[in-house]
Amino acid sequence: MGEKITDYKMIIDGEFVDSKSGAKIQIECPSNKAFFATVPRGDKEDVDLAVNSSKKAFQSWYKVMPKERGKILLQIADDIEKNKEEIAKIIAKETGNAIKTQARPEMNLVVDIFRYFGGLSSELKGETIPLGEHVLSYTRREPIGVVGAIIPWNAPVMLGACKIAPALCSGNTLVMKAAEDAPLAILKVAEICQKYIPPGVLNLITGTGSECGEPLAYHPLINKLSFTGSTAVGKIIMKAAAERILPVSLELGGKSPSIVYPDVNEEWTVDGIIAAMRFTRQSQSCTAGSRLFLHRKIYDNFIGSLVEKLGNLVIGDPLDEGTDMGTIINNKQYTKVCDYIKDGLENKNTEVICGGLPPKSGPLSEGYYTIPTIFRNTSNEWRLAKEEIFGPVLVAIPWDNEEEVIKMANDSHYGLAAYVWTRDITRGIRAAHSIESGWVQVNQGLGQATGHSYGGFKQSGLGREFSLEGMLDSFTQRKNITINLNTPSKDLEDL
Ligand code: NAI
Ligand code: MG
């Protein structure tokens, strides 16, 4: 209340700058709805400066020995590690994600990401192709150039690091646009990076999607687009890429199934379902297991334990050490989530068994707090079972046989993640192989770690970035060089 407003700058060519227009975006703290910071409201002109700076920086960055680039990423990892608690607090404040369950683990993962890619610079290998004794044919993994990267707000530093670390390791430079709702923590990370890299290797700009994101996507000097966010904007980015035949990576939305077989230990599996649904990130996760398929034999009992355990989650101030679950990011998303809940409450074919609309008075009404909500006996055809809600609203759908449940699980235009819960390993593997998703987990709900190729099938995305193979596929281009060794010397004399 009456809090001091701090003006942050963005980073272009190693300098901390305002937008050329001088315009700013106010940053709201979602747990008390108070403005506490501003960032520059960058537009086309700022994008142009940033992209030109990265273009220039590319000319020398790609020539830096891979081993050196790796060393730089390791130094950045150490520096971030020293500052991770401070950055975690910024994340909690700007996103509303609880420090204990979300922001702190996110920063631990960010340190891991820089360290992982720091160790991979020597893996940018090519191949030799056996075309015969008189030919030397080999490939090189060359960087693509200037990467235009756009990130969302739900795990802003982790999702930013997933692009910065592999792009820089493989010799690209980067212009990254932060999400207008959560630019501060990633700015802090980019500031740390500046100490170790030449100006322009990483430019971090701030602004809205249409004023700053779109000019970045369409800038003629961008060589590769990498986007994480909604499927709707993903389509805009892909169109921009099509204009110039740019390689593009898209990590988009999801409506991931969680399938529970009747042979599970229910107490234990309930914890897994809560983790998979990312309730402690208010379910603002593209990976959220938001369609719960429960076998009819265990349906009632399982739902009972789930409701009970959800009741134990402490909802409150994201910066409070006792809090498990914080707030939704902003008013727009809060309204969207509440509209879905209203739709559910008004629907006669379903029943709400916990949660509902957020309280209108008391401490939770001071921020964008929502409460875990479950609708039971819903149909897989219903809007709430089809669309990505990006809030703590779970639909619980009963099933009787495996073929039917796999069919329902796959009846979605999304295909990002999936969760299968069973003690029978053959069933688990059979289900995992039949589900149309980029990432299937059997008997675990969390588990996102560096090194696995995370990404979507269908409209959940395109390409992978989070692994060695992801870096090679998404941030390098293969060049083939073929040399004929059978050339006669000019005078035909032997050397
Ligand atoms: P969004 O997709 O609009 O925002 C993500 C990023 O894209 C932000 O940096 C934004 O400024 C930028 N952007 C927006 N419009 C753009 C444009 N025309 N050109 C270039 N960049 C643009 O997501 P939003 O509006 O914050 O959330 C809406 C829904 O998107 C959520 O309810 C959720 O369903 C989904 N979402 C999915 C995420 C994921 O991790 N896959 C992350 C965030 C949102
Ligand atoms: Mg905000």
Automatic annotation (TrEMBL):
One Pfam family matching this protein: Aldedh
Catalytic residues (positions): E251
TM region positions: none
Keywords: Oxidoreductase
GO molecular function, one term: oxidoreductase activity, acting on the aldehyde or oxo group of donors, NAD or NADP as acceptor
Family the entry assigns: Belongs to the aldehyde dehydrogenase family.
Protein name as annotated: Aldehyde dehydrogenase family protein
Biological classification of the source: Bacteria, Pseudomonadati, Pseudomonadota, Alphaproteobacteria, PS1 clade
